[in-house]
C-alpha cells in the first residue's frame, strides 16, 4: 500500500542537480543522450557541454534510449516510455507526456515513420502508433521466455528481434512473421546484452559467464569467443571493425575477429574507466569511432577509438645505426627539440626524428663520459646538462644541439658524482650534484642562460640523507631524499634551515614540483603524494597527504588550466598517467616496468606527452596526445553507496561504502558539485562524517577507525590532511564506530564522544593544537548497537549531558557535566521507537530542545527534552507511525522549526513543527537516489540527499 505522504506540494521541493548512476547512453547526431534515473541529460558531443536536462519519468529509471535516422527518440524504463524528438529534448521545457505499458519494457526502437516497437520482458513486441499511442499489433515467437536483455534491428530492411533470455540463451526471431531464426545457446548463464551488427551480418552477445560471443547471422554458427572480463558484462556495441564490451569490472575492452580464429582478440583494454563497480551503459558510433560509457559512479566518459588504438601502435624504435656494434645508449634527457643522449662508451648524441646525430666527439669528453654519465634537461631554458663522474659539466644548447659551455672544478679533488638532479621552471633553472661522501657539499649550479651560471655549495644534512629530488619554492631550495626526508635551504646560507625526517610513510621522494609560488607537490615512490607549504622564512608544513593505490608514483604536476592533479608512474609492467582529480587514466603503456631507464615530458602549453624508455638495450619512443582524454563529459560521485554527507560553507564531504571520503565544493549559483580530493586513508566502509570546527572534519568507520581531517585553502587549491587518528582498543579491532559527536570544551579543546557497535561509549578530550586524544570518560549502554550520539547543554547553567539512541528504540541521557571517569547511571532512558533510531535532529526550544527522531519502524516522533529544576525530563509530544513507507534514514534541519526527512522509500519530505510539538508534512516528492541513506542542509532551503548518488533540492 502506498504511503499517503508520498506526494505533497511537489513543486515546493525544487530539484537543482543530480549526480548518480548512469543507466543509459545513446548517440544521435552530434549529441549524447544520457539517462540518470528518470532524468535525461543532453550533451553536445564534441564539447561535452550539457545543453538540456529533463525529468522524463515521474519515478521509473531510464533503461534504454532508441533513436531514428530522423532524430525521433524513444526513451524507456520499467513500464514507462516517452516518444519525443531531439528538437523537443533541446528545449528548456519538455512538453511530451510519460506513457505506460502493461509489462516491463526491455527496449524500444522505431520501425516505421510513426511506429515504435516495444520489446517487453516476456519476449513480446507491441507496435504502437506514435500519433495516437494506440497498440497496432502484438507479436511474439510463441516462446514467452523471461528476458534480461534484447535489441531490435533491421536486417535486409526487415525488423528482427534479438532476445537475451534468463535461461535459454539468445533467441533471434522475425518481428513480421514471428518465426524463430536462430537459437544461440553457447553461453552458460543469463544473457545481459545482445546486438546485431549494422550491416546485419553478425550477432554478438554477453553473459554472466563473463564471455563475449560472436555469431554469423546467416548461419547462426559461433565464430569466436572472447574472455578477459573479471566479472559480469553488462553491455556490447559494434563500432567499425571492433566489438566494444563493458561491465561490472569497470573496464572497456575492444575486440577484433580474425577469420578462422575461434578466439576474439582483445586489441585494447581500458582499465579503471569508472570508479567502484559497474559500467551500466555503453554506446558507440561508427562515423567518429567514439565510445560513450556511463557508470555507477555517475560519470559519463568519451573514448575515441582512433586515439586509444594509436596508443597501441605509435611506439617507435630509435635507430641505432650510427652506433658501433659494441655501443648503446645509456643515459638520456628529453627536450622540445629532441633528445640528448650519452652512450656507454661516452659519445654525446642528439636524437631527432628517431635518428642519432653526434653532438661532440672529442677524445677528451669521450674518456670523461666512458661508462658513466648523467644527463638532465632544463627545458624552459633550452639547455641540457651532461655530467661526468668527476663532476665536469657539458652544457648543451638543445636548439642547435651543440656544447656551448663546459664547467669544471666543481668538486673537491678525489670526489665523485653519484647523482645529478635538476629543476627548471619559468624563473629558476638549476642542477644539484651529489657526492657519496657525507662530508662533501651539495653543489648547486644555477643557470640564467646556457652560458651564464652561478655555483652554490651547501652543507649536506646529517646522514642518512640521499638526495633524489629538488625544487625551488618561495625563494628556497627544497631537497628531497630517501626515507621521505626533506631539507630546506636558502641559497645565501650554506647550512640547511630545516631538515624534516620521515615526513610520511614510504621510501624515496621521487619528485618535487611547484603548484603555486608557495606550494609544492611532493611524490613518494610507494604511492604517497603530498602538498607542502613553504613559508617566507623557509618553514615547510605538509598540508595535504593522500595515497594512490595504483603502484609506484614517479612524478606529477598541477595542471593549472584544468585545476587538476596529474600523476605518473608504474604499476606492474606498464607506465601510466593518471588524473587524480577526476580519477581517470589518461594513458597506460606496457613497457616492462619501473626497473629500467625512462624519461617522460609534457610539452609546455599542449596536451602532448612523450615517453621514452629502454627495454633490452633498445630505446623506444611513445607519443601520446591528450586532446580528447580523459573525455570526462560529466562528473560523478562515489562508485558505491554514500553513507553520510555533511556541508559547511561551500565544502561538501561525502563518506562511502567504498572506504573513501570525498571533498568537493558546491557552487550555489550553478548548483554544480566539483570534486577535489578522494581520500583513501580508511580501509573499511564509512559510517559517519561531520564538520567539527571551521576547518576540521571527522569521519568514522569499521575497525574502530576515527580520523580527523584538516582543511586548508590557498588560492584555487583546497588541501586535506589527516591530522589525528583515534587509537583502537585492540590490535585487531572489529568494532564499528557508529556515530560521534563533538562539543567545545575550553580553549582549543574539543570533547569527542564515540559510540560503538558493541554498546560501548567513550568520551575523549581532543587538543586541536597537539592533535592528541585523551580518554576522559567511558561506559556501556546495554548489549545493543548504539546508532546516534549527541552532546547537549541544558538549563541556565548549561550543564553538559550526553544523549544516545540505539537499536532498541530507546533514548538514554547521562549527566557528564563533571566528566566522571565512569558514565554511571542514566538520568533518562525512554523508548521512543519500536526498534532502531536511525536519525535525529535537535531544535532549540526555550531552555530545552525538541528532539525529532526517525526509526526503523518508519515512524517520526517529536519529544520535548528539558530540565525541570534539577530533574531532566523527556516527554513525548507527537508520534506519526506511518511517516514513511520504510526506514527513515536522515533528518536535516532547515530554517526555523522545519526539518527534511529522507527514507529508504526514496521520498523527500519536509515537515513543519508547531509550538506544541506536532508535525505537519508541508511537501514531499520522489528522489531518484536509490538506497537513500542520509541528507544534510546548507543552513537555508537547500538540501542534499545522498545514497546511490547525490541530489540537490531547494525547499521553498
Automatic annotation (TrEMBL):
Subcellular location: Cytoplasm
One GO term (biological process): tRNA methylation
GO cellular component: cytoplasm
WD repeat extents: 184-225, 226-265
Residues in the signal sequence: none
Keyword Heme: no
InterPro entries for this protein: tRNA_Anticodon_Mtase-Reg, WD40/YVTN_repeat-like_dom_sf, WD40_repeat_dom_sf, WD40_rpt
Major localization listed first in the record, in broad terms: cytoplasm
Keywords: Cytoplasm, Repeat, tRNA processing, WD repeat
Family of this protein: Belongs to the WD repeat WDR6 family.
PANTHER family: WD REPEAT PROTEIN (PTHR14344), WD REPEAT-CONTAINING PROTEIN 6 (PTHR14344:SF3)
Name this polypeptide is given: Uncharacterized protein
Native species: Diutina rugosa
Lineage of source species: Eukaryota, Fungi, Dikarya, Ascomycota, Saccharomycotina
Amino acid at each position: 500500500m502506498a504511503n499517503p505522504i508520498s506526494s505533497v506540494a511537489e513543486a515546493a521541493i525544487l530539484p537543482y542537480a543530480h549526480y548518480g548512476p548512469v543507466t543509459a547512453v545513446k548517440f544521435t547526431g552530434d549529441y549524447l543522450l544520457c539517462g540518470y534515473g528518470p532524468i535525461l541529460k543532453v550533451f553536445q558531443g564534441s564539447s561535452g557541454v550539457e545543453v538540456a536536462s529533463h525529468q522524463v519519468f515521474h519515478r521509473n529509471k531510464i533503461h534504454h534510449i532508441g533513436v531514428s535516422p530522423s532524430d525521433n527518440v524513444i526513451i524507456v524504463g520499467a513500464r514507462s516510455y516517452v516518444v519525443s524528438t531531439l528538437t523537443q529534448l533541446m528545449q528548456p521545457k519538455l512538453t511530451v507526456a510519460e506513457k505506460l505499458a502493461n509489462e516491463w519494457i526491455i527496449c524500444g526502437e522505431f520501425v516505421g515513420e510513426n511506429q515504435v516497437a516495444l520489446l517487453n520482458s516476456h519476449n513480446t513486441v507491441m507496435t504502437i502508433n506514435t500519433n495516437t499511442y494506440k497498440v497496432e499489433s502484438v507479436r511474439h515467437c510463441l516462446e514467452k521466455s523471461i528476458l534480461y536483455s534484447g535489441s531490435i534491428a533491421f536486417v535486409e530492411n526487415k525488423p528482427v528481434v534479438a532476445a537475451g533470455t534468463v535461461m535459454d540463451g539468445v533467441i533471434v526471431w522475425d518481428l513480421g512473421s514471428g518465426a524463430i531464426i536462430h537459437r544461440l545457446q553457447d553461453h552458460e548463464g543469463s544473457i545481459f546484452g545482445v546486438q546485431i551488427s549494422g550491416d546485419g551480418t553478425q550477432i554478438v552477445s554477453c553473459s554472466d559467464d563473463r564471455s563475449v560471443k560472436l555469431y554469423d547471422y546467416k548461419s547462426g554458427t559461433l565464430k569466436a569467443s572472447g574472455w578477459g572480463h573479471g566479472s559480469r558484462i553488462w553491455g556490447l556495441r559494434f563500432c567499425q571493425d571492433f566489438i566494444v564490451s563493458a561491465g561490472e569490472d569497470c573496464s572497456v575492452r575492444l575486440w577484433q575477429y580474425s577469420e578462422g580464429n575461434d578466439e576474439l582478440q582483445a586489441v585494447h583494454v581500458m582499465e579503471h574507466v569508472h570508479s567502484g563497480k559497474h559500467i551500466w551503459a555503453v554506446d558507440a558510433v561508427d562515423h567518429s569511432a567514439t565510445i560513450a560509457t556511463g557508470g555507477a559512479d555517475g560519470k559519463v566518459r568519451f573514448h575515441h577509438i582512433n586515439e586509444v588504438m594509436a596508443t597501441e601502435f605509435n611506439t617507435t624504435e630509435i635507430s641505432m645505426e650510427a652506433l658501433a656494434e659494441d655501443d648503446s645508449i645509456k643515459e638520456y634527457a628529453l627536450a622540445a627539440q629532441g633528445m640528448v643522449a650519452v652512450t656507454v662508451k661516452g659519445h654525446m648524441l642528439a636524437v631527432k626524428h628517431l635518428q642519432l646525430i653526434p653532438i661532440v666527439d672529442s677524445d677528451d669528453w669521450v674518456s670523461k663520459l666512458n661508462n658513466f654519465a648523467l644527463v638532465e634537461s632544463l627545458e624552459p631554458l633550452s639547455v641540457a646538462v651532461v655530467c661526468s663522474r668527476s663532476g665536469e659539466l657539458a652544457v648543451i644548447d638543445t636548439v642547435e644541439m651543440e656544447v656551448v659551455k663546459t664547467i669544471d672544478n666543481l668538486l673537491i679533488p678525489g670526489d665523485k658524482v653519484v647523482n645529478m638532479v635538476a629543476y627548471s621552471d619559468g624563473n629558476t633553472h638549476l642542477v644539484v650534484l651529489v657526492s657519496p661522501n657525507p662530508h662533501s657539499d651539495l653543489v648547486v649550479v644555477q643557470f640564467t642562460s646556457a652560458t651564464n651560471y652561478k655555483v652554490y655549495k651547501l652543507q649536506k644534512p646529517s646522514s642518512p640523507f640521499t638526495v633524489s629530488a629538488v625544487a625551488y619554492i618561495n625563494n628556497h631550495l627544497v631537497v628531497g631524499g630517501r626515507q621521505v626526508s626533506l631539507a630546506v635551504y636558502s641559497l645565501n646560507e650554506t647550512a640547511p634551515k630545516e631538515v624534516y625526517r620521515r615526513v610520511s610513510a614510504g621510501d624515496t621522494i621521487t619528485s618535487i614540483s611547484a603548484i603555486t609560488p608557495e606550494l609544492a607537490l611532493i611524490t613518494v615512490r610507494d604511492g604517497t603524494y603530498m602538498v607542502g607549504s613553504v613559508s617566507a622564512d623557509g618553514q615547510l608544513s605538509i598540508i595535504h597527504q593522500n595515497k594512490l593505490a595504483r603502484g609506484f608514483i614517479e612524478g606529477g604536476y598541477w595542471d593549472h588550466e584544468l585545476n587538476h592533479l596529474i600523476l605518473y608512474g608504474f604499476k606492474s609492467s606498464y607506465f601510466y598517467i593518471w588524473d587524480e582529480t577526476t580519477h581517470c587514466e589518461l594513458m597506460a603503456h606496457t613497457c616492462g616496468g619501473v626497473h629500467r631507464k625512462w624519461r617522460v615530458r609534457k610539452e609546455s602549453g599542449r596536451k602532448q606527452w612523450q615517453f621514452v624508455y629502454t627495454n633490452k638495450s633498445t630505446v623506444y619512443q611513445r607519443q601520446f596526445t591528450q586532446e580528447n582524454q580523459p573525455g570526462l563529459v560529466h562528473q560523478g560521485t562515489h562508485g558505491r553507496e554514500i553513507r553520510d554527507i555533511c556541508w559547511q560553507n561551500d565544502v561538501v564531504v561525502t563518506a562511502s561504502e567504498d572506504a573513501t571520503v570525498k571533498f568537493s565544493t558546491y557552487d550555489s549559483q550553478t548548483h554544480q558539485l566539483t570534486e577535489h580530493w578522494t581520500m583513501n586513508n580508511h580501509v573499511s566502509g564509512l559510517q559517519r562524517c561531520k564538520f567539527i570546527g571551521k576547518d576540521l572534519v571527522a569521519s568514522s568507520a569499521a575497525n574502530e577507525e576515527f580520523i580527523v581531517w584538516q582543511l586548508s585553502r590557498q588560492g584555487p587549491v583546497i588541501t586535506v590532511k589527516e591530522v589525528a587518528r583515534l587509537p583502537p582498543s585492540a590490535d585487531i579491532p572489529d568494532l564499528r564506530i557508529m556515530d560521534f559527536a563533538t562539543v567545545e570544551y575550553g580553549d582549543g579543546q574539543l570533547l569527542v564522544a564515540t559510540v560503538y557497535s558493541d554498546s560501548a561509549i567513550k568520551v575523549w578530550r581532543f587538543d586541536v593544537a597537539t592533535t592528541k586524544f585523551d580518554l576522559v570518560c567511558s561506559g556501556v549502554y546495554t548489549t545493543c548497537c548504539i546508532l546516534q550520539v549527541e552532546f547537549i547543554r541544558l538549563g541556565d547553567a548549561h550543564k553538559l549531558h550526553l544523549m544516545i539512541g540505539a537499536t532498541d528504540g530507546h533514548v538514554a541521557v547521562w549527566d557528564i557535566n563533571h566528566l566522571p571517569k565512569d558514565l554511571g547511571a542514566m538520568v533518562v532512558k525512554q523508548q521512543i521507537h519500536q526498534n532502531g533510531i536511525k536519525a535525529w535532529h535537535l531544535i532549540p526550544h526555550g531552555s530545552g530542545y525538541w528532539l525529532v527522531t526517525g526509526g526503523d519502524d518508519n515512524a517520526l516522533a517529536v519529544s520535548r527534552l528539558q530540565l525541570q529544576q534539577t530533574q531532566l525530563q523527556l516527554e513525548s509530544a507527537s508520534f506519526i507511525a506511518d511517516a514513511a513507507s520504510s526506514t527513515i534514514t536522515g533528518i536535516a534541519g532547515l530554517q526555523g522549526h522545519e526539518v527534511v526527512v529522507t527514507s529508504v522509500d526514496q521520498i523527500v519530505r519536509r515537515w513543519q513543527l508547531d509550538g506544541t510539538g506536532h508535525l505537519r508534512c508541508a511537501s514531499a516528492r520522489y528522489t531518484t537516489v536509490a538506497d537513500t541513506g542520509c541528507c544534510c542542509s546548507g543552513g537555508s532551503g537547500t538540501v542534499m540527499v545522498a545514497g546511490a548518488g547525490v541530489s540537490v533540492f531547494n525547499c521553498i
